[in-house]
Amino acid sequence: MAASGYSDLREKLKSMTPHRDEERDKYVDGASNGSGKARKRKFRESDDDDCEHSDDSTELREQEARRVRSSIQQRSIFTPEECALIEEKIDDVVAQGEAGLYREHTVDRAPLRNKYFFGEGYTYGSQLEKRGPGQERLYRKGEVDEIPSWVHELVIKRLVSSGVIPEGFVNSAVINDYQPGGCIVSHVDPLHIFARPIVSVSFFSDSALCFGCRFQFKPIRVSEPVFVLPVRRGSVTVLSGYAADDITHCIRPQDIKQRRAVIILRKTRPDAPRVNSDSPLSSSPAERPAPLKAKRSHRKADPDAAHRPRVLEMDKEENRHPSASRDRRHSISSENYWRRGQDSDKHRESSGRKVKMRRH
């Protein structure tokens, strides 16, 4: 398989919209059986997507963009010196995560984007037993590490003193660490999990937050945003109202040209549902993962790295055994495939061979 710079992201995004592959397989099977109608239907479906986007009038999009902008507050609070100090602390978090010093659910690794949960963590995307909005669940208390003291001292206290958030508001802090070409698909922060507002602070480089995009795959492409919000290093972005609840937001791959990190500060709702104690996602709070192999320095990330071919062990295995590896890759989400060891073990038993996969 000739992997492009976004090959992992395709698998990650595909796992979040499995219905697309089902529809694609249905049409391809029909075409292979000699049905010209199936192929024609596939073409028309693609045309419908384009028409739906083109039918949005400029006036309506401008009205929606104004509603988005009116429900966003943005301020430049942190100086370059303060940013540099906080970025050193973020590097320490990355190092501790790679050394296996955090609890299992604190660190969530994905291609070109790592996520670190503190205070409260939750299931999302491919981790969900049932897909769809409203299915997200908080982990049990103690299954992620506490919010680091430096986040309180250097970030939260500064936001409180600046009047951005009230004292005691934050009980969940997430650090998203993006490499060049990384992204996060369009979503709304779960309404049943988090109170509003949603507060984020950007570090390392400038980027953009896009609203109202739609992701498509093979190749990955993103529709024209309804509204694009530049996010500068050291800037604080506060989402509430329409921007937080009534339209999706995302980070596009093309907007991450250099390493970028964002600290997201939120408050969980007191009635937010949690993962059941008998769920396979639950584990002992004291359980920690094995140390991970050292990765290349984040500070030396090449801006062009996202556009270079990346060949994974699983790709090499697919070239050696195309049919068996294809079944395996469809059964395991690329976003958190190493967390689903049970599925992997079942596959090994049924196929009689072992597949070596590298963590990313």
TrEMBL record:
It is found in: Nucleus speckle. Residues 101-257 form the Alpha-ketoglutarate-dependent dioxygenase AlkB-like domain. Residues 8-28, 54-63, 300-352 have a biased composition (Basic and acidic residues). Residues 1-63, 267-360 are annotated as: Disordered. Signal peptide: none annotated. Residues 276-285 have a biased composition (Polar residues). GO terms for cellular component: nuclear speck. One of its GO terms (biological process) is mRNA processing. Its main location: nucleus. It catalyses: an N(6)-methyladenosine in mRNA + 2-oxoglutarate + O2 = an adenosine in mRNA + formaldehyde + succinate + CO2. Gene3D superfamilies: Alpha-ketoglutarate-dependent dioxygenase AlkB-like. Keywords: Dioxygenase, Disulfide bond, Iron, Metal-binding, Methyltransferase, Nucleus, Oxidoreductase, Transferase. One of its GO terms (molecular function) is methyltransferase activity. Belongs to the alkB family. This is RNA demethylase ALKBH5. It comes from Collichthys lucidus (Big head croaker).
